[in-house]
Specification:
This is DNA-protecting protein DprA. The protein has 366 residues and is α/β, with parallel strands linked by helices. The chain has helices spanning 3-11, 19-29, 32-37, 40-44, 50-59, 64-76, 90-93, 126-141, 154-165, 186-194, 213-222, 237-247, 265-272, 282-288, 300-303, 310-321, 327-334, 338-350; strands at residues 79-82, 101-106, 115-120, 145-148, 169-172, 196-200, 226-230, 251-255, 277-278, 325-326, 354-357, 361-364. Strands 1-2-6-5-4-3-7-8-9 form a nine-stranded mixed β-sheet, sandwiched between helices. It has a three-stranded antiparallel β-sheet with strand order 10-12-11. Helix 13 links the parallel strand 8 (251-255) and strand 9 (277-278). The longest helix has 16 residues, at 126-141. It is globular and about 55 Å long. The chain starts with a helix and ends with a strand.
Amino acid sequence: MPEELLYQVALTRIPLIGDVIIRKLLETFGSAGDIFRARRRELERIETVGSIRANAICAFRDFSEAEKEIHFMKKYGIRALFCTQPDYPQRLHHCYDSPSLLYYKGTASLNVPRMVSVVGTRKPSAYGRRMCRQLTEELAAAQVTVVSGLAYGIDILAHETALQAGTPTIGVLAHGLDRIYPAAHKNTAVAMMAQGGLLTDFMSGHLPDRQNFPKRNRIVAGICDATIVIESGLQGGSLITADLAGGYHRDVFCIPGRADDPQAAGCNHLIKNNKAMLITGAADVLQMMGWEERSRPPVIQRELFLQLSDNEQKLMQLLREKSPRHVEELYLLTGLTGSEVAEAVFSMEMQSILKSLPGQRYELVI
């Protein structure tokens, strides 16, 4: 069995060592194996690690649970996605509390250009079901990968509609991949593994306990460009997911409902408090995300006359690789300060090189 994979799985099992701490350790040591091989003094010097956590790492000797998990993964064709690997979801990687290790069973890439989560109540009205089907079909037509949590109601309806429309759909689970919950959704889950996938940060054997669902929701929010809420009361997982998405600087959209409808109270609350943008269909999402299909003018001659600073050239290269991008991506991927990015963006807007979109996103227009 690959030694580094063993260390990666084992690292997540050490007491007191959570995902944020693992990120700090990896910044210094580079790999899970090098963390285990580090001396206690080296570990103690890392910010937020200290002597207690350093002792926990140095004292860890029981790799049997990690070995068992790797055998399970090989038997059922499950992939481990560690946060330092290129196939780890890069949108999620930019979230400060992202899981260091994910378990994935599926065929779809988790780094496609367009990913949107669709969430909502477990008991949708006829209106909610109709809007979910319509919206998901329209997203599928625009080649958007649909993500949800495989729960009753809006979640499973979004998955099923995506499958019927022929677009990949990803289910994020609050338990290990040795089970499907709810069991009633097993057939849909099996179909998703062939046209999308199932994703979790829980090892096999973990049950769908109540405390696992907020962790699941952070992946649903962080793995996507945007989150859409279709019918939600004032409490529940959908609003948690929306809050997480906003905290990750992702766009949040809501289908509005009647003012006196308790099932629409959550969506109306998000819209009223400027935590989500009101939409009536996928066309609104595509427009606000800058995903509308349109022809672009020839750029070769114009680019000959561009006079860009070093910082502007960095942004230009980044936006050529992918556009639009969130302003936080511009900070993280260029290494520029906030003021440097702001100055470069302003100059490029004045030259009509890029334009701003809702949700602090920027798109190349030449």
